[in-house]
Amino acid sequence: MSYTHTIGIMRRAMGFLVCSALLVGLVLLSMSASVGAQSSGSTLSLGIVMSSPIIGSLNYFSPSENYYVTSALYLPFATYNFPPLAPLTPVLAAGWSHNSNYTGWVLNLRQGLKWDNGSPLNASDLYYTFYLDNYTNAISYSSVIHNIKILNSTAIEFNTSVSEPNAVYLWVEETNSYIFPYQVYRHLNLNTSLPGPNIDNFTNFVNIVADGPFVIYNYTQGENPIIFTANPYYYLGPPHLSQLVLHIYSSTSSYLSAYLAGQIDAYWAWGAYEVAAALIKNVPGHSFYNIVPGGEMIAIMNLNQYPYNTTQFREALAYATNVSEIDQKMMGPYASNFSVYYDNLIESLNQQIGLNSSQLPSYSYNLSMTAKLLESIGFKQGSSGSWLYPNGTPVSINIMTTQLGTGDVATATLLDSMWKSAGFQVNLQTVSNSAYYNYIFSKTGWQVAVGIGAPGYYPTGLGNLLGVFSLGEPYNVSLEAVNGVPNYNYTYVNQQLFVAQEYPIGSAQSNYYSRIAAMSIAETVPIIPLYAISNWQGLSNSFYWGDPSSYTGIFATQALVQPQLYWNALWIVQPISSISTSTVTSTTTSTSTITSSSTTTQTSIPTSPSTSTPPIITTTTTHTSSLLIAVVVIVVIIIIIAALIALRRR
């Protein structure tokens, strides 16, 4: 064979390789075009704090589920919000409707939704999610739900045996309404006593199917950081970044150090302004924002113990508490916006239930009123100014606190000083978070607890009153009047709140009974509200995070997740240099709900939820990224074989 002939063969082989490579490029290009535009290639780095980097489960129904990650992977039907946004905002929802007596409901999904593997997200997923929420009794009215069924590819319906005017709101608030893939969860045994993967022990670590803006396909326990990739099928379009890196830190100090060193692009703090601002307000190249209310700092009094079971004593402590001073010292320039009234509501939530805050007792700092009230129930003031019980022994108050957010201990220290100045002996003790909550949910072992109120803060007036005062301890006590002064009455308060729930949230009737409950709480002082806390964010100026004026991106007043982990914040964030007019367009969806009437047929309530497989729309479970890799591998193998054959023909 001549040298020239050999060169010719090699050129033909190389030509074949080049053509094949071009063919591969065209195949991949066409496939990538089918899944939408690709992201810019930038990376966002965030951090969370966990005692251990080992995540127990990514199955939302598992007791060991990790909410940080699952809430990033999955989108809800709707989110609930603080004012000024409406209580509910559709996310995957197109809307919902009910019949005239609120016993028949239809839930509608948006058209054209997809999971990250390209398969349709449809009524099958919505059906099975709602079915599982009902089966696990995660919904407060689960016992009256029946006749759940699929109507079409985007809608399901269900009935209740009694009127449930707030059915959708309660479902969203109580379960967060995350929609899960039927193609994954259908394989689980619902009976947790059965062997194999069941609703409790399924980890969801392999072949993960999700719909968040950034997704993971597999998770190995202990991996840190966790690398998320952009979801090309996100319901608003592909995110602007290609990758999310989520670092897990074992302490807030290591989390803060990473932020200050520029290793992560955002820092989230929860609590008082002065403490959060001291940590992250003046970081070069970053901005500091107040995002959304996050609860309230309160002094809870043990209503099961004397003298805290007496209204006059609780009022005396309220008058001995300079709430304005505490608010100013802890919330700084935000103090006037974060006042909490004695009905346990902030101004916007009082407005929501139609209550003028000026109607509520304020218990403004007044030591003369403290003395008058204590003397009215037999207490005496010694020559040194110290207060004595009727039997002559000194009044000693034990304050317990914990470091749940930023500011708990600092606030308790201020209260300790004020009450000592008022003539009380005070002992302040800081305990662990778990010990703190174990104490306040028991009847004994504590007197006053200062901290962020359990169980958090709800974004509606009625929801917040229910969330706090329909709990068991520490409020589950109905006390007798003392010297004719009404006392806190758990039974009465809950009766009013129960009736308020019988009407749609925000209706005139619901607001009326909510106001009655609120006034009763304020007049009997079961707690001393100190100030509302907030979610604070330190954010890198290298990125665009959304628009505060229109509450988009990280500035949405949603109440489901940390602002930095909010789906539409992760979707909208992008390098500041890449901002265009189209980027900053508001992405807020309509918050109006569909309230058309429909006729539904009542059926008997089954004794237990059926575990039979519902009529489901078939979907594929292959991830696009996996398919791309498979195609590349196969084509490359073909090219190599073809090239070898061409070279052998000489």
TrEMBL record:
It comes from the Archaea. SUPFAM superfamilies: Periplasmic binding protein-like II. Signal peptide: none annotated. Pfam families: SBP_bac_5 (PF00496). InterPro entries: SBP_5 (IPR039424), SBP_5_dom (IPR000914). GO terms for molecular function: peptide transmembrane transporter activity. Keywords: Membrane, Signal, Transmembrane, Transmembrane helix, Transport. One of its GO terms (biological process) is peptide transport. Belongs to the bacterial solute-binding protein 5 family. This is Solute-binding protein family 5 domain-containing protein. It comes from Candidatus Marsarchaeota G2 archaeon BE_D.
